[in-house]
Protein: Protein translocase subunit SecD
Amino acid sequence: MNRYPLWKYLIIAVTLVIGVLYSLPNLFGESPAVQVSAARSSVKVDETTLTRVEQALGRENLAPTLIQLEGGSVRARFDSTDNQLKARDAIERTLNPDSANPGFVVALNLVPRTPAWLASIGAAPMYLGLDLRGGVHFMLQVDMPAALQRKADVLASDLRTALREKNVRHGGIQRSATTIELRARDEATATAIENLIADQFADLQVVRTPDGAEFRLAATLKPQAALAVQSQAVKQNITTLHNRINELGVAEPVIQQQGADRIVVQLPGVQDTAKAKDILGRTATLELRLVDESTEGLAAESGSGMVPFGSEKYLERNGRPVIVKREVLLTGENLTDAQAGFDDQQQPAVHLTLDGKGARIFRDVTRENINKRMAIILFEKGKGEVVTAPVIRSEIGGGRVQISGSMTTVEANDTALLLRAGSLAAPMEIIEERTIGPSLGKENIERGFNSVIWGFVVIVAFMCTYYMLFGVFSSLALGFNLVLLVAVLSMLQATLTLPGIAAMALALGMAIDANVLINERVREELRNGSSPQTAINIGYDHAWGTILDSNVTSLIAGIALLIFGSGPVRGFAVVHCIGILTSMFSAVVFSRGLVNLWYGRQKKLKSVSIGTVWRPEGGGAVAKAD
Structure:
């Protein structure tokens, strides 16, 4: 009646082992560290960089507790923040002798002390939020007028091309702020322009006003289109920030929209505010230009002449100069996708996909410039570098472009990542900045975990006193629930915040509530005269329905918070929902496994240790204790 089959005990044992293993990393804490990553796509972090970092630390007699190459960055761990700061300065001097043109990002960070044997099975601690770990908080204001002006520039260029294709002769196009102004010499031309805009530019609305013998047309974005441009600008900036912040190695950064034109960025564990600002400002974009192959251009490229007027000099990755014309044919705004791959000769390449406008321009440019060179220039932090300058062999249509040349597979992947990240859709300004020190975060952690621990201790004391051995079983199930909850959060790499700790304390209360229902149901059966074995069996079976109903309703509320909440509310909801699921398993499956293991083998069981069983009809009490 009260015996589990072997497979159920095996499930409990395996779950317990997994829970202990994956919750253990949270006990080892974090080490102050210095992280070195690439500041430009042309700079690589490899074993040579690791050696240079070790030499820089050796010259300053700084011994890291661990230094290794991890995922494209070097991380050196130290036993104190003092050594961490000294190491940062030493590494910065060695790797970035020219502070105006740094090749590496040298940032302060905090990394977990998880032992290698735990890390080898994928065990890692939970991420800690800004309120627990410390870090930096930024509020960024997106320059919406700049986004609208950029959109107006694109529309003005497209409109000029469309009028030329339709052979509509106008008196000129210019942009004033976010308004596109056109001039028409007569009413027929003005009507043709209005019809073309109505057919091909649904986002524009046109107002015609007489201007002497001519007509002036002012095209502006419709309100709905302007709102869509602003919304897209914020979304693109958020995507770009996500890609940029990856270089800092920040665990679970918070990047979210606040209001119509603001973005909140929280970087837990980042101690270097200046470096974080530098990363937030980094963008990469693409420009396609024709190479200046005139006599003056070739002389400048060989170093025997000056750069001609209307051209600029950029360097390839191997340091070779390339003279390109100032006119920009295409930009990264016309890019819809960038993926690393291989060309026809199985050499690493980057495959680009252009939008409709970009595909049309690229087809025309390649048709008109066969046997000429075209440079593909990657800009980062305002500095351009020629990725490749191939010769145009034939007209290229379909909107698919291939960048290939002297690049490795890693370089192709990095270039594709930077191009996908793109540039900011609109400039941003930091309007609020806060730094939360690790000491404050440490204090929050201690207070939060103390509340959970003391709550656990008080509950255990009450349960063991009031329910005796069944209280011990309930307390062990409660401890199992806590271990399982921490393990699941760690495996999911969830971010724990102060609201999450509050949800953890709430989960303990809800978990013990299920055991109270079970214990009281067993007592009720004993009062009704049932045998101990029958009382245990009926108590667990009948309490299950009530436990399920109460937890399902709580789970529905938690899911609602998870769907509609944001920030701290979502952090609370995640822990709350997981805590409900783990408490149902621990309270019903685990605790009954303990009871079955202790009492199930006793065929002639006369009493159980569940405290005092009151019989109201007799006015007395019967102590059911071993």
Summary: The mean pLDDT is 80. Residues 257 and 263 are 5 Å apart (CA to CA). The chain is about 50% helix and 25% strand. The radius of gyration is 34 Å.
